[in-house]
Amino acid sequence: MAALSPMNLNTIDTDFQVDKLTYEIFSILENKFLFGYTDTENPKNSLPNQAQFQSKDIKSAKHAAGKVRILCIDGAGATDGILAAKSLANLESCLKRKSGNPNAHVSSFFDAVAGSGVGGVLAALLFTRGKDGLPMFTADEAVKFLIDNRRKISHRSGILRRVLRPETKSEKLFRKTFGESTLKDTLKPVLIPCYDLVTRSPFVFSRADALEIDGYDFKMRDVCAATSADPAFAGPIEMKSIDGKTKILAVDGGVAMNNPTATAVTHVLNNKNEFPFCNGVSDLLVLSLGNGDSDFNAVKSPSGFVRIAGEGASDMVDQAVSMAFGEYRVSNYVRIQSNGVMSKANQGKKAKTGSDLLAVSEEMLAQKNVESVLFKGRKIVENTNLDKLELFGGELIKEQERRKTSILPTVVLKNASPSPRTSSATTLSTSSSSS
Predict the structure, then answer these.
(1) For the chain, which has fewer Cβ within 10 Å, the N-terminal or C-terminal residue?
(2) H-type helices in 179-248, by residue range?
(3) Nearest in space to 134 (alpha carbons), one of 90, 186, 56
(4) What is the C-alpha separation between 193 and 357, in angstroms, rounded?
(5) pLDDT tens figures, 124-151
(6) Residue 2, exposed/middle/buried by CB under 10 A (0-12, 13-18, 19+)?
(7) 316 falls in which pLDDT band (50, 70, 90)?
(8) For residue 206, which of 259, 258, 268, 153 has the smallest C-alpha distance?
(9) Distance (Å) of CA 4 to CA 9, 15, 38, 342
(10) Which of 27, 107, 116, 314 is catalytic?
(11) Catalytic residue flag (residue 116)
(12) Measured between alpha carbons, how far is 278 from 161 in angstroms, rounded to an integer?
């Protein structure tokens, strides 16, 4: 998408009034067709509650149950994922400071995560369980991992690579990093998309599916290789589930779902087993992380055009999700992304090293935040991206503290069942997601 220029900033109207009837119609359409749920105040239009709670119980209890916290991470963007990783490093530092726990992890303060492309790799690093029961990586370690290995993750291979199909550098890296861990070994619900060339449709790797059906459990190393597979250079990744029954030919998740926010929100709102009291956007806290917009004029390769298309789709998803949140757009949904206005030192500069990308990412975080406005496009607000992360961290802490005294479970996480399974009714364990 085109960057916002200084001229644009001065012409954006920050004060707007939306006709009430138009707004209500738009909200209904978004609720019905974007996220797949309907007005919870009308029992005839509500989805059936699979957790066996009656609708009247939900109405009286949903506020007491709190908010489900969702983290969403875009594909590579202009910073190869480093903007999102640095955003999470700053957020984790904020959470440690505000919670008083020097060992706090990002995964402890979110109930679900979705990541596409390198964003999926980042989600896997932060939410896969390590040998000590804690996440494999802290946010700072994840930043270093992406900087040190970005060439391997976005490895460009020649014709021999595509014909002979040896294991790529990225596949070797993921094998060494994740070992035999599978989707079942993640700490929270995880959603990581790719594009399946066999069915010509998106395929979403899901912890919930992996726990219910053996045929949807995949090794994390394969998941990361699939979601980051460059279709123009590395070619597709041929992979199969743990039991060998599900086979896909996967390429980069950014091809169809560079911004996974709508997918994550839809999953949570329709997953009544794990999120029994979540019935609308007012019951959500969503953090969506972009990775900067690439320079369209500098794109010369097929892979570059795929990336640009993915970034444009990301902005469209941001617009749709922001509109769907309506009056909760500012309080319950935060999008961190470059506003396109760079300093003279970095304007037009092509970052070649990890250090360059880190410097550019830090400048993007210091920029004023961009918000989508109902029927008005985008506007620049007074708070910086760092300010937004700090404020959102405070909301995460409040929700964490609220759960300590709540008698209602905000999240009812699924546990793995012994294989083979005879049904999709997996074991449930009540959890307030405080660990």
Answers:
(1) C
(2) 207-212, 220-227
(3) 186
(4) 25
(5) 999 999 989 999 999 999 999 999 998 8
(6) exposed
(7) confident
(8) 268
(9) 7, 18, 35, 10
(10) 116
(11) yes
(12) 47
Which residue(s) pair with 219 in the sheet?
Answer: 182
Q: Using CA of residue 406, residue 411, residue 412, residue 415, what is the dihedral sign?
A: negative
Neighbours of 396 (CB within 10 A): 23
Residue 127: both structure tokens together:
């939410």
Asked whether 242 and 209 are in contact (CB, 8 A), the reply is no
Q: Is the pLDDT of residue 52 over 50?
A: no
Per-residue pLDDT for 423 more than 50? no
Among 102, 234, 97, 68, which residue's Cα sits nearest to residue 160? 234
> Per-residue pLDDT tens for 383-422?
999 999 999 999 999 999 999 998 888 999 887 655 444 3
Report the DSSP beta bridge partners of residue 113. 71, 190
- Specify the pTM: 0.80
Strand pairing class (368-373; 112-115):
unpaired
Domain at 63-156+168-193+258-340+352-405: CATH architecture: 3-Layer(aba) Sandwich (3.40)
pLDDT digit string (tens) for 262-293? 999 999 999 999 999 999 999 999 999 999 87
